[in-house]
């Protein structure tokens, strides 16, 4: 594995300020990695095609409903027409009021999370190791993280650290990003949270410590690195050099993963948030981890959870306060170091 950049006195990875980063900083992909990448590309192409078909179906359905509505009005008397229009306005008003109420509750939950919520950090201090497409993928995942946390009944206090350079530029392009209920820090977490270093816990697959519970006093860190598995063990090495604790999720105690043992950043965050809601790892794993990444059947009946898992794999959701203008948010299926119990 190619070496990353050097470390400064605080344990953060150095990023050149004036000199441009070298063009080829990562080793070439192995044949096995190339096969996985090709498989991933085919999957994404198929998904894009399906999304286009769904969009076309939605357009046609909208046209059909509009035509039906116009025909209904045309065949109705003046009195019936007025009643139909008034009824439709009333339903629309109810939907708007409900949406406004839900938004207010969401803001209240997120404000409360800033005070007493579990602190979870997404470490995006790896942008200098990623290509533009990988940075774009990570930004999409962060967008989904924010959406998941906002919908949760027990949201966490979400942080982004190492937000600078290209990563900062791309995040700033997100609609409404400046209004997000999230802590944005340009410094590395080891600097931004220097007074809480003893409570920092980096989640990494290479750790020997299995995470049994989430300690409210601890600050859990997720590595925001989309690298197609080029930099194996980089988060563990970083944590060791910084002298902070590490841990891995207890996935192996509840399910057997398939050959693809990678999860996206948003899936790891969603697992943690789901655990905060249920205090049940099993429910969190089976709700979030797609069936295609699992092998075998669990002895306990998880039929009620299967459809939820499928929805998380295919369905896109709102990602910020302006998400009403964006119907679907594509989740990038890319490789990222993930705190699985079984290290590869």
UniProtKB/TrEMBL annotation:
<dbReference type="GO" id="GO:0052905">
    <property type="term" value="F:tRNA (guanosine(9)-N1)-methyltransferase activity"/>
</dbReference>
<dbReference type="GO" id="GO:0006400">
    <property type="term" value="P:tRNA modification"/>
</dbReference>
<dbReference type="InterPro" id="IPR038459">
    <property type="entry name" value="MT_TRM10-typ_sf"/>
</dbReference>
<dbReference type="InterPro" id="IPR016653">
    <property type="entry name" value="TRM10/TRM10A"/>
</dbReference>
<feature type="active site" description="Proton acceptor">
    <location>
        <position position="227"/>
    </location>
</feature>
<dbReference type="GO" id="GO:0000049">
    <property type="term" value="F:tRNA binding"/>
</dbReference>
<feature type="region of interest" description="Disordered">
    <location>
        <begin position="1"/>
        <end position="72"/>
    </location>
</feature>
<dbReference type="GO" id="GO:0002939">
    <property type="term" value="P:tRNA N1-guanine methylation"/>
</dbReference>
<dbReference type="GO" id="GO:0080179">
    <property type="term" value="P:1-methylguanosine metabolic process"/>
</dbReference>
<keyword id="KW-0808">Transferase</keyword>
<dbReference type="InterPro" id="IPR007356">
    <property type="entry name" value="tRNA_m1G_MeTrfase_euk"/>
</dbReference>
<keyword id="KW-0489">Methyltransferase</keyword>
<protein>
    <recommendedName>
        <fullName>tRNA (guanine(9)-N(1))-methyltransferase</fullName>
        <ecNumber>2.1.1.221</ecNumber>
    </recommendedName>
</protein>
<dbReference type="GO" id="GO:0005634">
    <property type="term" value="C:nucleus"/>
</dbReference>
<feature type="domain" description="SAM-dependent MTase TRM10-type">
    <location>
        <begin position="106"/>
        <end position="296"/>
    </location>
</feature>
<dbReference type="InterPro" id="IPR028564">
    <property type="entry name" value="MT_TRM10-typ"/>
</dbReference>
<keyword id="KW-0949">S-adenosyl-L-methionine</keyword>
<feature type="compositionally biased region" description="Basic and acidic residues">
    <location>
        <begin position="41"/>
        <end position="70"/>
    </location>
</feature>
